[in-house]
Design brief:
The complex is a heterotrimer of chains A (about 250), B (about 220) and C (about 220).
Chain A: E1 7-16, E2 19-29, E3 34-38, H1 45-52, E4 60-65, E5 68-69, H2 77-82, E6 84-87, H3 99-109, H4 115-128, H5 144-156, E7 162-166, H6 177-189, E8 194-198, H7 201-207, E9 210-215, E10 218-224, H8 225-230, H9 235-242
Parallel strand pairs in A: 3-8, 3-9, 6-7, 7-8
Antiparallel strand pairs in A: 1-2, 1-4, 4-5, 9-10
Chain B: H1 5-48, H2 53-68, H3 71-81, H4 91-116, H5 120-129, H6 133-148, H7 150-163, H8 175-186, H9 189-218
Helix pairs in contact in B: 1-2, 1-4, 1-7, 1-8, 2-4, 3-4, 4-6, 4-7, 5-6, 7-9, 8-9
Chain C: H1 3-40, H2 46-59, H3 62-72, H4 82-107, H5 111-119, H6 124-139, H7 141-154, H8 166-177, H9 180-209
Helix pairs in contact in C: 1-4, 1-7, 1-8, 1-9, 2-4, 3-4, 4-6, 4-7, 5-6, 7-9, 8-9
Classes of the chains: A alpha/beta (about 250), B mainly alpha (about 220), C mainly alpha (about 220).
């Protein structure tokens, strides 16, 4: 294992109209690792994710991917984005394209693959997520959980360095939380590097014990949920993690 | 004057080849301006989504100017105004240019309002995958916006057909101009114009039927509204 | 002759332009309302007739209908003056389009409110006049503005039947001065000005009658 993290975020700051959303975030993600970032809504989780692939331009601070600086000028942003698989909160599938085309579009248009080759690769990813049978359906014809799998397949098809998931359970029925956690763990088992932000303690618990707690734009705490919910000196943090500890 | 059917029918038959070429001209003009107007509308939509505020401003000004100006005034400006600068365009060219400027503005307005109904996160997802500004437009924005605008766009084709009668006011010899000639040979204006109305009505009906077929074909399964 | 002189000469036609626009818009409004109301009453024989009317009048070019009325009707013994010809062509066509606008707006009136009104003992016509139309007219404002704008933009056709409105002044002026470029640019500006003024008037009326918090159902 390389001692250098796959992704290294240092002193990341983002201001929106004079409002500080990220106030110096530090975060490391190891190759093949899984990182769960938690925090109340408005803590800057989504902004942090969007800084990684520069959908949002950080105000200051640095991000390194595989030791390469990816913030600032002179970076090939489109290449960077291709290397980060992003799964949106509402999944954001392209509504006018079939499941298969959703997954193969970027392979064809960005990787320059021929249709046949792209579709083979796309089918491989869909099969991996048990969605092969739905290849010809449109996003409007499948359930939320299925949309999420297609969105994951779309991200995985590009063989990204990391898969980023923004609130993977918020658009789904709460009953599906465990299923989502199993899916994430399966990918983890297949050596996919994962970064997941969520406010869902139940989901976090089912994925991993170690979490990062983000609040008001900085990492306030890091450690096991067990510890954060019972032994952390800050009552607010104990409260946040204690909410659903019984579940 | 309610009579005169034999004379009218005789003249109609006699002039039928001319009237028919007029009809072809009308259909040709309608087809051309519908196409150029659609392409123009797409270009204008692309410009309204520009990242440069100046380009966006100018495009907005273009749309509101050409939507606010009566088409006939625009045609007269091109046909009777430009010669002052030594630019003499044929009636056909004036019609194509004038209509295209006007129709593109309308189509751009329809497309823009469809764009406002798009899921913005889908476009963000496109950027997140690494697509360029232009690729997001061509692969994600345009296919959806065009589908959503089919009713408005086909309605514009109907308007184009009906408005093509304006071309006769700048001496373009399309269908209505030929009907005019027919009427002036036997002074049976009512019959001639009623015939014209009937022909336009039939053509409009044909477009309506075609539009319904197109609408059915481009519908995205599982998508409401 | 400078640009201001041109504007001043054209302005003489502006009154006629406004007259034609208002006359045709008013006709369209009355016809459109009548059709929408009759349709709402669901009278068996009338319904198909209304459909035919809206279909035919939306399918015929304004210019063709205008020529039928002004040049064609005298042939069968009906001489129609220019302004009335505009009303019977542009006005009736606007009526067909407005009928469709009103049809859509009527569908936005909450069905439960209509039921409630009927339950309280109001007759069908009373429900229409007291509940449906007042709401519908407010929902229909954008569509109405759109149609009135269209009427304004077709009002130049009045020159073909000899009404001395803006475009007629322009053709005369162009024939005598050969300065079509400035003249038609001025005409364009003038229509834009009339358009803005009418828009302000409509907005004022709309705000005057706006019901706070009411949205289409």
């Amino acid at each position: 294992m390389s001692p250098v993290p796959l992704i290294q975020v240092r002193e990341l700051v983002k201001d929106f109209d004079g409002q500080r959303v990220l106030a110096g975030v530090n975060l490391d993600i190891m190759e093949g690792g899984i990182k769960v970032v938690m925090g109340p809504s408005g803590c800057g989780k989504s902004t942090l994710l969007r800084c990684l692939n520069r959908l949002v331009e950080p105000t200051s601070g640095t991000i390194h991917l595989r030791g390469q600086l990816v913030t600032g000028a002179g970076v090939d942003v489109r290449a960077l984005r291709q290397g980060i698989g992003f799964v949106f909160q509402q999944f954001a599938l392209y509504r006018h394209l079939t499941v298969l085309d959703n997954v193969s579009l970027a392979l064809r248009k960005l990787r320059g693959m021929r249709r046949l080759e792209a579709e083979q690769k796309a089918m491989y990813e869909l099969a991996r997520l048990d969605m092969a049978a739905h290849r010809d359906k449109y996003p409007g014809q499948i359930s939320g959980g299925q949309k999420q799998r297609v969105a994951l397949a779309r991200a995985l098809a590009m063989d990204p360095a990391v898969v980023v998931m923004d609130e993977p359970t918020s658009a789904l029925d709460p009953l599906l939380t465990r299923e989502v956690a199993q899916l994430i763990q399966r990918l983890h088992g297949e050596k996919v590097t994962l970064l997941c932000v969520t406010h869902d303690v139940l989901l976090a618990r089912s994925i991993t014990e170690q979490v990062v707690f983000l609040d008001r734009g900085v990492v306030r705490a890091e450690g096991s949920i067990e510890h954060l919910s019972s032994a952390h000196p800050d009552a607010l943090i104990r409260d946040f993690f204690g909410r659903e500890s019984g579940a | 004057m309610t009579g005169g059917w034999p004379a009218f029918c005789r003249d109609l038959l006699e002039q039928f080849p001319l009237i028919f070429t007029g009809l072809v001209q009308t259909l040709r003009l309608t087809a051309i301006i519908s196409l150029t107007g659609l392409l123009g509308g797409i270009v204008v939509l692309y410009l309204t989504l520009s990242r440069s505020p100046i380009v966006r401003r100018l495009t907005q000004a273009y749309i509101s100017f050409f939507i606010g100006m009566p088409l006939i005034v625009l045609l007269f400006l091109l046909y009777y105004g430009l010669p002052q600068w030594g630019i003499r365009l044929s009636p056909f060219v004036v019609a194509v240019v004038g209509f295209t400027l006007n129709v593109a503005a309308y189509n751009a307005a329809y497309l823009t309002s469809a764009y406002n109904g798009l899921e913005q996160t889908e476009l963000e997802a496109g950027r997140a995958q690494g697509f360029s500004h232009r690729q997001v437009f061509a692969l994600l924005t345009l296919p959806q916006v065009l589908r959503m605008s089919v009713p408005a766009l086909t309605n514009q084709v109907i308007l184009n057909l009906k408005d093509s009668t304006l071309a006769f006011l700048i001496q373009y010899t399309e269908f209505f101009a030929r009907i005019q000639e027919l009427a002036s040979t036997n002074f049976q204006f009512f019959k001639a114009y009623a015939l014209a109305a009937l022909v336009y009505l039939l053509l409009v009906s044909a477009i309506v039927l075609a539009a319904r077929a197109v609408e059915k074909r481009v519908i995205i399964p599982g998508l409401l509204g | 002759m400078n640009f201001l002189d041109i504007l001043a000469l054209l302005a003489r036609g502006a009154g006629y332009t406004v007259l034609v626009t208002l006359a045709c818009s008013a006709t369209g409004l009355i016809v459109g309302l009548a059709i929408a109301t009759l349709r709402r009453l669901r009278l068996p024989v009338v319904l198909p007739l209304l459909d035919v009317y809206t279909y035919v009048f939306r399918g015929i070019p304004v210019l063709v209908l205008l020529f039928i009325v002004y040049f064609g009707l005298p042939g069968i013994g009906l001489k129609v003056p220019p302004l009335l010809s505009m009303v019977l062509s542009l006005g009736l066509i606007a009526g067909a389009y407005l009928a469709e606008v009103f049809r859509g707006a009527l569908e936005s009136v909450d069905a439960a409110e209509i039921l409630a009104a009927q339950a309280s003992g109001l007759g069908r016509l009373q429900v229409l006049a007291l509940i449906e139309l007042p709401q519908m007219l407010r929902f229909a404002v954008p569509g109405m503005v759109n149609e009135f704008t269209t009427v304004l933009k077709y009002s130049p056709f009045a020159y073909t039947v000899g009404l001395p409105e803006i475009t007629k002044q322009a053709t005369t002026l162009t024939a005598t001065t050969q300065r079509g470029l400035e003249i038609y640019l001025a005409v364009g500006l003038m229509y834009f000005a009339v358009f803005r003024i009418l828009l302000i008037a409509v907005r004022w009326i709309e705000r005057r009658y706006r019901v706070p918090g009411m949205v289409p159902a």
